[in-house]
Amino acid sequence: MCVDQGCPLSPALFAIGIADALERIQAKLLTFAPTGQVFAYLDDVMVVVPGAEGARAMDAVVTELGLAGLTVNADKTAAWTLDPQAPLPERLQGLQVDRCQVLGATAPWLDRDGDFSRVGVHSFAEGLSVVQSARTFVTKVGELRGAGLSAQTAFLLLQAFSQGHVTHLLRANYETSGWAREFDDALVQGLERLLGTGLGNSQRAQCFLRLSEGGLGFGSAEQVAETAFLGSWALTLKEVAGCVGATSWEGFRSRCGPLAASLARAEAKLLQDAGGSVQPVDWVGLLGEPKAKLQGYWSAKLQECRKRALQAGASRDDQVDLRSAGGPGAGGFVDPPVLFEDEQSKPMPDQHFLVALRDRLRLPVCPPSALCQHRRSDGSLCGVPLDSRGKHALKCEVGPTREARHDGLRDFTASFHPKVSGYVAVTEQRVSAWDRVNPRTGVLEEARLDVATRDSASGRPIFVDARVTCAHSGYEPRQRARAGKDGVAAADAVRAKRHRYPPSGGELVPLVFEAGGRPADETVAYVRSWAAELDDAERSRVIRYAWQQYSRVLQSGNAEMILSAIG
Question: Under a CB-based contact definition with an 8 Å cutoff, are residues 366 and 564 in contact?
Answer without folding.
Answer: no
